[in-house]
Amino acid sequence: MSAMAGTISVLLGIEDAAELDRVTAQAEAIVRTLPGPARLGLAAGAGTLDVLARLTTGHSLDGLDAGRRDALCTLLESRAARAVEAVKIPLLLAAGTGLLPGPPEPGGLVRPDAVLDCTPSADWPACATADAVVVGSGAGGAMAARTLARRGMAVVVLEEGRRFTAAEFRERPPLDRFLDLYRDGGATVAVGRPPVLLPEGRAVGGTTVVNSGTCYRTPSRVLRRWASLGVPVEDFGADLDEVEATLRVAPQPMEPLGRNGLLALAGAERLGWRAAPLRRNAPGCRGSAQCAVGCPHNAKYGVHLNALPQACEAGARIVTHARVERILVERGVATGVRARRPDGTFFEILTPRVVMAAGATQTPLLLRRSGLGGHPGLGRGMAVHLATNVAGRFAEPVDSWSGVMQSVGIEELHGDGILIEATATPAGMTSFPLPGIGRRLRGELDEARHLAVLGAMIADAPSGRVHGARHRALLRYDLTREGAGRLRRAMTAMGRVLFAAGAEEVLTGLARDPVVRDEGELTRAVAAASRADLHLAGFHPTGTAKLGEAAAPVDPSGRLRGVRGVHVADASVLPTCPEVNPQLTVMAMALRIARGIR
Question: Rounded to two decimals, what is the model's pTM?
Fold first, then answer.
């Protein structure tokens, strides 16, 4: 790891020995959670930089003085900028989480942890029975489990992750929580042109534990499109009403909004654009900006605090640390599931009803492992919300990580498929790269409190695909020309909002033009950027087991075609991208599907 320490010292411009030790230790923790290919890539990157340092300076990375480090940084920026960016992002995560506030004061809980009937798989018997098994405890799985349990069925929910408590969110460092709460430490990537970071939550409550709490109703135009595809959406509004009541959705109050959100509102107002605080399931939000690593106040009202405890109250049980390996089928009829414990042993639950709610990337994988992946549409047509960020530098401190993490929605361009939201996290916890390396990057980190950050999501074409049939999905997603155009329009629009709010300059995240000082420079920089220059993350994957007429893998009732007793009730079934944060949509769809299970 000496090469890693040297890499951190050079790329992040860290000279203080104690700080270097701290960031290196955190980087080592990140590396341990990464999948094998990512670990190899980071090791190769650090090793390559070390070799380059020896060839050009005669010294290893950790043996360079200040002058040689500066010279090496200049060389790297001119000849290996993209490779350096790939190495830099996880190192920024190691350094940037230190910007988050420390542990909250005692007595700051908004609500206590819910009562859940959770059993670790190590304590679960080798064979059991149930009326229904729900695979996955996120938005769709929780709603399905509650619906079935309230009808008197014996329901078992199987969750690959574990239960987290508010005490952990209050006492553990943010980076530790981040690495635990996400599959592969948040490093899931869809390969393509360009690659897209696609973080996936893994916990009791699924992604609702780590999402931003933003709750949009499904737009009417989307429902009309689905109806034309054979999806029954009559009275969908009533289902959305029930979900909103379950989550206690309400407009975000202004008091804890934070300056990041206030600047977004101010910029939009000066442009005459529609903007308002977002509707969220976070009654009592204290503005800790830690939604993505678990709310330390238990204010965000994810399904681990409502639908799941309501399911348990009706008799449902949750088994944690349980990775479902296979759906058991005899003569075209589901008979149960086989799941694996962390120690490699297996257990089975016999049941005539299996509800898949493992998410749009994992559901196709499990169906293929079970011999149920024969439909040609399964795993194809994955849509995601592609997201990008820009930041504005202001004369006065913004402290964007103090306040609501995702606070304000700007909907002026939503009709064009662009939804702008004020979203702020410390450097490294998003795909947004601060410019430069070495002393320059160190200066950016030191001045990060002066940055306000906006993010935009665009609804791209369903050009993604889930490959694989074993333990790890290989995700492919190619940015379309239309999607690239929307991203460019989104970046320009966000820059305009920041300049209108008083930003002195805008950080674009583009390697060629990382900083612009007026709208003209911004327009030219964005227009000149290639697709490969865009820094992207993907959220809300949908559509890998579409619901619809005969050409879809799942019939209009939610039943998987070709087998009896298997239903799908997660984001996989959504026929197209819902064009908004999809939690309400997924829960409402799962509610409808579960009600139809006999």
Answer: 0.94
Query: Is 297 known to be catalytic?
Result: no
Contact residues for 519 (Cβ-Cβ < 8 A; gap 6+): 492, 495, 496, 499
Q: Which residues touch 387 (CB under 8 Å, ≥6 apart)?
A: 431, 455, 456, 457, 458, 536, 537, 538, 539
DSSP character at residue 556? T
The string of DSSP letters for 344-379 reads S-EEEEE-S-EEE-S-TTTHHHHHHHTT---STTTT
The answer to whether domain 259-282+380-539 has CATH 3.90.79 is: no
**Which residue out of 414, 450, 540, 567 is catalytically annotated?**
540
Residue type, 270: R
Contact between 279 and 250 under an 8 Å Cβ cutoff? The reply is yes
Q: Tell me the Ramachandran region of residue 258: left when phi exceeds 0, alpha when psi lies from -120 to 50, beta otherwise.
A: left
Tokens (6 digits) for 314: 């009706």
CATH topology of domain 118-178+205-248+293-377+543-595: FAD/NAD(P)-binding domain (3.50.50)
Q: Name which of 261, 297, 299, 302 is nearest 282 in CA terms.
A: 299
Spans of all domains in the chain? 2-96, 118-178+205-248+293-377+543-595, 259-282+380-539
Q: pLDDT for 537-596, tens place per residue?
A: 899 999 999 999 888 999 999 999 999 999 999 999 999 999 999 999 999 999 999 999
Least Cα distance to 282 among 293, 295, 271 occurs for 295
| Residue 66 CB coordination number (10 Å) | 11
Choose between 386 and 81: higher pLDDT.
Answer: 386
Q: What is the dihedral of CA 224, 226, 230, 231, to 10 degrees?
A: -110
Task: Report the chain's terminal Cα–Cα distance, integer Å.
Answer: 57
Report whether 89 contacts 433 (CB < 8 A): yes
Rounded to whole angstroms, the Cα distance separating 557 from 592 reads 8
Report which secondary-structure segment, H or E, holds 85.
Answer: helix 81-96
User: Would you call 173 helix, strand, or coil by DSSP?
Assistant: coil
How many of the other CB atoms lie within 10 Å of CB of 37? Answer: 11
Could you read off the pLDDT of 428-481 as tens digits, one per residue? 666 677 888 888 888 888 888 999 999 999 988 888 999 987 778 899 998 999
